[in-house]
Amino acid sequence: MSDTPRAAYLPRGLPIPVPENDGLSAPYWAGLRQNRLLVQRCPRCKTWQFGPEWLCHHCHSFDIEWVTVEPRGRIFSWERVWSPSHDALRGHGPYLAVLVELPHAGDVRMVGNLLGDPMQAVSIGADVEGVFEHHPESTPPYSLLHWRTTAG
Amino acid sequence: MTARAASERTLRGRVAVVGIGETDYHRHGASPDPEFKLALKAILAACNDAGLDPREIDGFSSYSDDRSDAARLAAALGTRRLSTATMQWGGGGGGCCAAVANGAASIVAGLADCVVVYRSLAQGQYGRFGQASGISTISGERAYLMPYGVLAPPQRFAMRVQRYMHEHGVRQEAMQAIALASYHHAQSNPRAVMYGKPLDPAKYNASRWIAEPFHLFDCCMENDGAAAIILVPEERAGDFRNKPAYILGAAAGAGYRSGAMPHNSPQYASASFETLAPALYRMAGIGPSDVDVVQSYENFTGGVVMALAEHGFFKPEEANDFLTLENLIAPSGKLPFNTSGGNLAECYMHGFELVIEAVRQIRGQSVNPVKRNDVAMVIGGPMVTPASNLLLGSGATL
Predict the structure, then answer these.
(1) d(Cα B53, Cα B19) in Å, to the nearest integer?
(2) Where does residue B133 rank: exposed (0-12), middle (13-18), buried (19+ CB within 10 A)?
(3) How far is A34 from chain B (nearest CA, A)?
(4) Could you say which of B155, B159, B208 has the minimum Cβ distance to residue A77?
C-alpha cells in the first residue's frame, strides 16, 4: 500500500461517487476514506461479491459481510482514453483506466486509473497495487482507489 | 411437457412484418422535429407502407426507455382499442430485436392483433449519449466508473474489446473491415447520414483515437430520427401492399450473471450472445450457414467481431481471416453485413434501422441487395444485458 499522491489523477469536476439512497454501497465508500478496501463476502458459503448486493448470489444468504482486503491485484484489461466525454476533461488526456482482478478475493474486478505515464505500455496480467486518492475538500468528501504497477 | 406443447411455444412463422417506416435521419441535435413528432411520422410511414389504417394498431412495443409513451401515441393516433404496451428493459440497442419479439409474442398469445414496434430519438431535445457533463453526484454502477473517467459508452466498452483481442489474438484490421463495409454500403444509400463520405483504410488509420482500441470510425454515430415496423398474425400477411417478412426466431437476455456490475460478468470478453445464439437457431430451425445477410448492431466495431463469432459465423481465432471487406459486402460476400450502412454510417437509430434493412432485404428492396435473400439476421446491441437477436425469412422459408 502506498501514500496518497499529492495531486489527483484526473481534474476536478467529475461526478462524485455517493452511496445509493438505500445505503447498499455505503461501507465500501466509507472504507476508501479510511484507506481500506472492503469487498463483500458471504460468511456461510465464502463467496466473494463485488459490486455489492443485498444477498449472496451463490447461496442467497442475506447475512453477507464486508471484509477488508489487501488492495493488490493484476490487470485484467485496460484502455487509454483520448476523447473527453466530460467538460472537466477538456484539454486533459490521454489517461489510462484499468480493470483489475483480485485473485485473493475471488477474482472480483474493479475499475480504477493506472498511475504514471499515460503513454506507458500496459500489459494484461501485470501485478498492480492500490493507491488511495482522497478528496476531503470535496462536497461531499470522497476517496478513490487507483493502481500502479509493482516492480518485477 | 409433451413434444407437441414445446413445439407450439415458438414465434416461427406465426407473425409477419408488413410495414416499415422511418423519418429522415439527421446528425444528433439536427432534427427539425421534436422526438414525439418523429415517432408519429415513422409510425404513419410504416402504416402507409403497409396500406394500413393507423387506428387499427392495438399494440405498442419499444425498448431503451423510449420517451414516446404508448398511451400518448395511442391517443394521438386515435387508436380505437389499446391492447398491449410493452417496454423491454435495458439501455442502448440491446432491445432492438427483443422489442420485435415482445410485439410478436403478444400477437401469438392473442393479446394484440396489430402491433407497431418503434424507436424515436432526438438528442438535441434530450442530450447526447456520448457526453456526461452536468452530473454532480453519482451512485450505483456508474459510481465505480465515472470518477475514473469511464463515463461514456466508448470508455465503458473499450476494456471488454481489449480483453477479447488479447484472449483471441484479434487485430485492429478485423475491426477496420467492419467499419469499411458499413461505409461501403452507405455510399449507395441516399438515406445514410454518411452518404457521399467514403472511408478507406488510410482514413481509418489516420482517424483519432477515442479510447484505445477504438478509432473514431470504430464508434457509432449519434443521430436523430425515428423508425417503426408493423406486425400482424401470419394469416393476415397477404392483406398488405408489400411482400411479408416472417419472423423465424428471436431471443433476448444474456448468460449467467452477465449483468454483474461493475465489469464483473463472468464472461467478460463477450457480446452476451452465448445463450441467445443457440436459442435463436433452435427456434428458427436453421444454422449459421443458412443466413443470407446479417445486420449486426455496431455500438463499436469490436462488439460486432464478438457478436458474429458468438453466432457461429467464424471462431474467434478466425476473426482476422474472416473479417475482410470482400467477405462483408453485398451482393456476394461470404456474409454481407450491414447493407444499409448501419449505426456507423446510415443512422444510429439504436439498431431499429437494422431491423428495417433486414425487412428490405427479404422484400428485395435494399439499395445493396444480396444474391440470396430468404433469411436475414438482426443482432441487437452487443456487450449489454439484456441483448437480443432476430431472424426474418421470406414466405419460401416457412
Answers:
(1) 12
(2) middle
(3) 17
(4) B159
Cis peptide before A91 (omega within 30 of 0): no
The x, y and z cell numbers of residue B174, run together, are 478485423
| Share above pLDDT 70 across residues of chain B, in percent, rounded to a whole number | 98
Angstrom distance (rounded) from CA A93 to CA A33: 26
Q: What is the pLDDT of residue B332?
A: 92
pLDDT band at B6 (very low <50, low <70, confident <90, very high): low
Q: Which residues contact A49 (CB under 8 A, 6 or more apart)?
A: A39, A40, A41, A42, A56, A57, A64, A106, A108
**Where do the DSSP E strands lie in chain A?**
16-17, 37-41, 48-49, 65-69, 72-81, 95-102, 108-113, 127-135, 142-149
Which of B136, B167, B220, B263 best tests the A interface by mutation, with the highest count of A CBs <10 A? B263
Domain that holds residue A41: 18-69
Cβ–Cβ contact B212 with A under 8 A: yes
Cis peptide before A140 (omega within 30 of 0): yes
Strand partners, A75: A100
Closest CA to B156 of B204, B104, B211: B211
Domains in chain B and their CATH numbers? 11-127+219-397 (3.40.47.10)
Please indicate, yes or no, if residue A127 is contained in any of the structural domains: yes
Quick: pLDDT tens for B266-279: 999 999 999 999 99
- Residue B24 neighbours by CB under 8 Å, 6+ apart: B191, B225
Considering only CB atoms, B264 lies closest to which of A25, A51, A87, namely A51
Whether residues A102 and A39 share a domain: the answer is no
